[in-house]
Amino acid sequence: MEITVSNEINGQIFGPLDISDEMSLQDFIALIESECSFNKSIHDLYHNMDILDLNDDQKTLKDIGLSKDDLLLIRNKVNVESAVPVTDLTDDEFIEEFRNEVIRNPILKSQLVSQLPQLETLLNDSVRFKEVLGPVILQRRYSGSTPQNPFGIPQQEYTRLMSNPDDPENQKRITELIDQQEIDEQMRNALEYTPEVFTSVHMLFINLEINGTPVKAFVDTGAQMTILSSRLAEKTGLSRLVDKRFIGEAHGVGVGKILGRIHQAQIKIETQFIPCSFTVLDTPMDLLIGLDMLKRHQACVDLKRDVLMIAGVETKFLSESEIPKDFGTSNGVQFKSADEANKSPAKDSNPVSTTSGKISKPNTNKATVANPNVSQSQPQAAKTFPESTIKKLMDLGFSRAEVIKALTQTGGNAEFAASLLFQ
């Protein structure tokens, strides 16, 4: 005969199992223990909604009433003694007990991790586990019974709020609770329908060469300029080409010092050699390809095919295992609890990041750079420039204030000022 076994603990269905009705109950239990994750000490076996008596191992399947095409259910044993204290647990204790149960039960853990990959990390952090999954767990806890109040807050607070709902403070609190209900509902829907949004996404890197040196370059469409680290410039022999007149500051998530600019160098992507200019920073990231190079060579980021098309060639983005290991830890976004965020002091981040922003105009005045005795905080004396020079630069489409600022930064050099304005 054929029998189907459904394990309601892990949600798996086994069968139909082709077995003889003369098989002993002892042999059948051994079979479902190996095939169906059955454990006689903690599980019950149901047939037609009745618990089978598994104590008489010598009976046959026919003797206990099993027949062709029957369905057996595996469920946890009903433990009346342990059910009482669980009911008395507070919400926080209930969430912690659930976390410990998942850790203790490898079958349940593997099932939940397959649905929510982030769970593996959350299980090791009780605070984050409570913040992320607490609302969902409590909803399941009270789903079988009518909650004491619609907000799930202590009844004493609910009574106080409802006794005087027109009070401004009570109205503010009620509004917060309604908003929190909507947030919790959105989170439950996200966990159920789009669990992938809770996992991290690896960044876009490509392989290329600079002067024969292999480099893993970070492609950042949000960065204004292409950035080369001073360490890689030294390694590839480009440090001698750094124009130190273009020093300044790079502003992104943090602030970094611009050491200069390399106006042109060759990079090799696949079989194509491409001219590239770099802004040199003292940064741990070797190379960041910014929007200036991507637009210049009409690049196309094709995420469907996972390739970058640039200057007539096509190169694959690196897989997660090929990305530099230190990039994920130093540049990834890490969420903290509210308490941790308040305790942790704010730190300046490296400006070379996924949110790289504006890079300030470099100071190209040689005299200012060369003279170490000039204090940076000392205000510069007002300078006058020929009106014809100002008008010529304004004719290029810039305001008078922008032109005067550029001329001041370049010491009155009209060509340098024009180059600066077009950056």
Automatic annotation (TrEMBL):
> What's one GO BP annotation on this UniProt entry?
protein secretion
- Name the predominant localization: cytoplasm
**InterPro entries this protein is in?**
DDI1_N, Peptidase_A2_cat, Peptidase_aspartic_DDI1-type, Peptidase_aspartic_dom_sf, UBA, UBA-like_sf, Ubiquitin-like_domsf
Q: Locate the compositionally biased regions of type Basic and acidic residues.
A: 337-346
UniProt feature, compositional bias: Polar residues: 350-381
At the top level of its lineage, which domain of life is listed? Answer: Eukaryota
Residue ranges annotated for the Peptidase A2 domain, each copy included: 215-288
A Pfam family of the record is Asp_protease
Any idea where the UBA domain is?
384-423
Q: What does the entry list under GO cellular component?
A: cytoplasm; plasma membrane
Which Gene Ontology molecular function entries are recorded, alphabetically?
aspartic-type endopeptidase activity; K48-linked polyubiquitin modification-dependent protein binding; proteasome regulatory particle binding; protein-macromolecule adaptor activity; SNARE binding; ubiquitin binding
Q: Which UniProt keywords apply?
A: Aspartyl protease, Cytoplasm, Hydrolase, Protease
Localization per record: Cytoplasm
Chain intervals for the UniProt region annotation (Disordered): 335-385
What protein family does this chain belong to?
Answer: Belongs to the DDI1 family.
This molecule's function is given as: Probable aspartic protease. May be involved in the regulation of exocytosis. Acts as a linker between the 19S proteasome and polyubiquitinated proteins via UBA domain interactions with ubiquitin for their subsequent degradation. Required for S-phase checkpoint control.
UniProt protein name: DNA damage-inducible protein 1
